Amino acid sequence: VSRPPAAAARPAPTPHEAYTAPDSVAATNAPSPAEESSLELFLSLSATLTGFSVTELWATAMVQTYYDLLPTIVGDRIVGELLSRWRDTYIRGEGDEPLLEDLVTSQILDDPDFGPLARNLAALWYLGMWNQLPAEWRNVHGAWANDVTYVVSSKSYVEGLVWKAIHTHPPAAKQPGYGSWALPPVTEGDAS
Amino acid sequence: MNEFRQYDAIVVGGGPVGAHVAKKLSEAKKTVLLLEAGRAGGLTYEGYRSYVDNYHTRVVKDTNSPYPYNMSAPSPNDTDILKIVKGTPDIVGYQVEVGRQAFGSTYLRQLGGTSLHWLGTTPRFVPNDFHIQTKYGVGVDWPLTYGDIEPYYCEAEWSIGVSANREDQEHLGVWFQKGYDYPMERIPPSYGDQVIAQKTKGLTVNFAGKEYPLLVSSLAQARNSIPRRNYTPVGAVGAPDIGQRCEGNSACIPICPVQAKYSALKTIAALDPNYVTVVAQAVVTRLTIAENGRISGVEYVRYETEGALPPFQPVTATAGLYVLAGHAVENAKLLLASGAANSSDQVGRNLMDHPFSFSWALAPQSMGSFRGPLQTSGIESLRDGEFRKYFAAFRTDIGNTGWDIVDYPPNGNVTGLLAANTFGRKLRRQLAETLPRQVRIGFDIEQLPEQNNRVTISREYKDAIGCFRPIITYDLSPYTWQAMVESQKVSKTVYDAMGIAKADQHFWFTQDTMPDERKFRAADGKDYLLEFIGAGHHIGTHRMGTTRGNSVVDRDQRSWDHENLYVVGCGSFPTTGTANPTLTAIALTLRSTKDMLTRLQ
């Protein structure tokens, strides 16, 4: 395995890079961050935490917003460290799903610095909102001014993955149409 | 300063009841000044849509969350309601709560009123609701009967646009005039409703020694469906092609994005401007009373922008008739502040609601939860019976949005699983396997009129512009508590029939989350911890009755004390029945407009 560049060292992608990213990432549609940019690490970590593929994440049109958001809330340094930790974790567990799952738990979720951030990132994707980090985290890393519980935008709420996960739509958006509620629901067997 | 123009009538309050008064009087070519304390937002389609976007971005999506907070005409909010500590009033919100129970209901002061955030459920009262004293020896009788109000139910249902099938509503003596049907077909029952209806078919519960059927039936609802005969559904204000049908936005409370649900904005937008003048941001502070006992004017202050500080230049407006349609609590507040209409000492008293208790369960299969209007069916068959001699009747609603009011899914489900290090595909699967199985049943329970459940005012508690804040004293009687205990029989019967394991049936919260005030020793000698919330059905603060001694208004909702004053809406109800009250308030007031027009001849 070749050593990837340090995630934090790479600047955020220009709008052009962000625009061209979907095709290249969607083509593989699997986390393979060994050689990846910071954005790609962000995407593969997001996919691993949420259980939605990178393609599905791009389909929300929220990738750039969320990628840009984290540093504005907790700063560049710890976000870069989280992505580096994820890259190292992935390299150790690549190709062995149960191992990778254990490593995500032990190296990221159980880590007092990265765990709360990773949980918040998953919640951001699922709910479109940022939850204020736990008191213990804020005592160590500082109480950042933007670290408040809020819904990022109307769009982020509407694109929350939780509604897709439970086979419905967000209340007050994406309405499924007259009488749709009388039909039998999608069950896990129907879902792809 | 005086209003230049003399009006035939002044209506205080731009909600569904006030809007209908303005409609009827103006149709008879009477001039009307409609005064609204809140903002007139929502009359443009784009303005209304901004509330939808606001709802999306609110962390706490409570009943008033889409609508901008207005400190110049504040409203009570769900988030203000705290546990009441004995002896210390809860003064956090607009409403001052004295206890013993918190009055957990909200309303909205904005043009359109609380119909902006209401659910839109529109059952009629059952005939016995109008005389429970004669029939069951409890509460009081109304000064009119179901027959007196029936034609106005029909008119109200066509005016606001109710979707229902007549045969679904003909229960417990509810009858319809010959040839009548609702303007639109019933809203299709949800998949979950269909499962529950099928599994509970033929089941009964035993109340006070008698068996009563559990009949799941479609709810009458003021939201657009397929029209009958020559009816044209009324779409969004300013964009009439939108909202021609309910589209399943699952957000009726607090906002229907397409306006398929009725709100008073629809009635107000259709008023003839040649006859009706709407003035918003106009907070009425006082009625003035002439020596002959007639109301001689209303004083109001008009704030330019929310948060503007006093002093304000008060304005006096005059008319032949005065109609208070400002909401049960606001009407009482205004009468008390004016020293008006209170020779009976009943103003503000007999405050009631439908205390709403609930149970929740996890079905063995998907119920398709989190789809459709918030409610499409209910169990209506327990709204009347001999048991009302001993405990309250109730409407049973079957929710379509899982454990909505229990723990506000899905946020806690997502963060809870993540906290337990469940992530990735497991997280996605667990959410998919549990949330659509959530069922929640709720009970709108009748409450009897009691003198000490009341709205008062005090110089101690005023709002930002110097108007009185309502002070609420509120408790429940054993008649209502016992019904809450009995309602658990309904939940158990339904959940057992659905094959739900006992461990997945939930009836109350843990003891440490419950205030002591909610402990009740039931007829069986056992202690129950009972949780309830408000239904948003403020009833009874200016009750109608048969004499000036026992009531604030007569059967036409006219003040006994001031011949040119009407006090209208849910506050006039002598008792609560079990029906969501807005339809009845509109019907009752349509009837009253006949009397108003007689006096304006």
Give an overview in words.
The complex is a heterodimer of chains A (192) and B (601). Chain A has 192 residues and is mostly helical. Helix content of chain A is 56%, strand content 2%. Chain A contains 10 helices and 2 strands; from the N terminus they run H-H-H-H-H-H-H-E-H-E-H-H. Chain A has helices at 15-28, 38-50, 54-59, 63-74, 76-93, 97-109, 114-127, 135-141, 154-158, 161-165; strands at 129-130, 150-151. The radius of gyration of chain A is 17 Å and the shape is globular. Chain B has 601 residues and is an alpha/beta fold. Chain B has helices spanning 16-27, 45-57, 132-136, 146-160, 166-169, 191-199, 264-269, 328-338, 404-407, 411-419, 424-434, 478-497, 582-599; strands at 7-12, 32-35, 96-100, 204-207, 210-213, 216-218, 276-279, 282-289, 295-302, 315-317, 319-324, 356-362, 375-379, 394-399, 438-445, 454-456, 471-474, 505-506, 519-521, 527-529, 565-567. The mean pLDDT of chain B is 95. The relative contact order of chain B is 0.18. In chain B, a hairpin with a 5-residue loop joins strand 8 and strand 9. Chain B has a 6-stranded antiparallel beta sheet with strand order 6-13-14-15-12-18, covered by helices on one side. Chain B has a 5-stranded parallel beta sheet with strand order 7-2-1-11-21, covered by helices on one side. Chain B is globular and about 70 Å long. In chain B, helix 1 (16-27) packs parallel to helix 13 and helix 4 (146-160) crosses helix 13 (582-599). Chain B contains 13 helices and 21 strands. In chain B, 23% of the residues lie in helices and 16% in strands. Chains A and B meet through helix 2, helix 6, helix 7, strand 2 and helix 9 of A and helix 2, helix 10 and helix 11 of B.
Describe how the helices and strands are arranged.
The complex is a heterodimer of chains A (192) and B (601).
Chain A: H1 15-28, H2 38-50, H3 54-59, H4 63-74, H5 76-93, H6 97-109, H7 114-127, E1 129-130, H8 135-141, E2 150-151, H9 154-158, H10 161-165
Antiparallel strand pairs in A: 1-2
Chain B: E1 7-12, H1 16-27, E2 32-35, H2 45-57, E3 96-100, H3 132-136, H4 146-160, H5 166-169, H6 191-199, E4 204-207, E5 210-213, E6 216-218, H7 264-269, E7 276-279, E8 282-289, E9 295-302, E10 315-317, E11 319-324, H8 328-338, E12 356-362, E13 375-379, E14 394-399, H9 404-407, H10 411-419, H11 424-434, E15 438-445, E16 454-456, E17 471-474, H12 478-497, E18 505-506, E19 519-521, E20 527-529, E21 565-567, H13 582-599
Parallel strand pairs in B: 1-2, 1-11, 2-7, 3-17, 11-21
Antiparallel strand pairs in B: 4-5, 6-13, 8-9, 9-10, 12-15, 12-18, 13-14, 14-15, 16-17, 19-20
Helix pairs in contact in B: 1-13, 4-13
